[in-house]
Amino acid sequence: MAQYAHPEVLADTAWLAEHAPDPSLRIVEVDVDTSAYDLGHIPGAIGWAWNTQLCDTVQRDILPKPQLEKLLSESGIDQDTAIVIYGDSNNWFAAWAFWQLKIYGHKDVRLLNGGRKKWIAEGRELTTDVPSYPSTGYHAADPDLSLRAFLRQVQDAARAGSVSLVDVRSPQEFSGEILAPPGLPETCQRGGHIPGARSIPWGKACADDGTFKSFEELQALYAGEGVDGSRPIITYCRIGERSSHSWFVLKYLLGYPNVVNYDGSWTEWGNLVGAPVGRGAAA
Amino acid sequence: MKAENYNERRIEIDGWPVRITSYKLGERYVCEADNVSPGAILARIAAPSAEDAEKQAISKATHLLGKTKRHEV
Q: pTM value?
């Protein structure tokens, strides 16, 4: 079995259980449901709320550099700290945090393979104790926007057919049958997908236990939809977190050279006046 | 503390597949409901009994899924 292109970006649960006390390591939980951390988390883990601590809360944007530096400093993280991130829903927002940390140049960031689900299912230790760590003076790099796609870039690429557009939402969201995941609020005016996009739901990259599928399985999954890394790849979903997960798979596990996450995603495209929309199930 | 009696099963609510995940954590019983595809958490309830946790989780998931509209494509 081939190894992932960058196996160093994954931590497995057994390894983390052994290394959790390492002071050069910081464990961070980032959940979709921000109450999950309070129920019980990995000992030593701090919790970040994606909706208040990992975005600009005024204008729609990723976390500005000064706020990221403040968050990391207050979390006791410096430039040399190894950060292991995990969360619920198979690491959706953990991947979102990973993506932002890479944008700001943090060297050693890893996702816990299997996330919160696997840790709990294996009966590993949990606590409700909230740790605190001495503050640091974290200095982030300027944002590397080559990891992020903006609307104009996606519009140009879709028009030219020059990239592989990967829609990682559910098939019903892709077709336009529903405007948001079942049970979640509708956040767009139109359903459907960006014309030319291929439907490859994020969950197809995961095994039942929440871990990532093998290199060969992932390669076959994307190649089956014509996504093989020979062209630039743009991933998108509804608000950018599920697409961070697929971005992670394509960029770090498969090692494709040019993969960007369009975090504006369907809540931007599906609300645009005059934007073309594809409808119907994937071909 | 460690999660005990971890269990997953699938049910259907209003035509939507829902995964019910339950476990005991300390003195409380936790029940989570997610929408399977794409896997978004709809409810995460901690209660004194497993039955109560599941009842509340299914009730909340049912309420949320009942608001989901299917559109003509």
A: 0.96
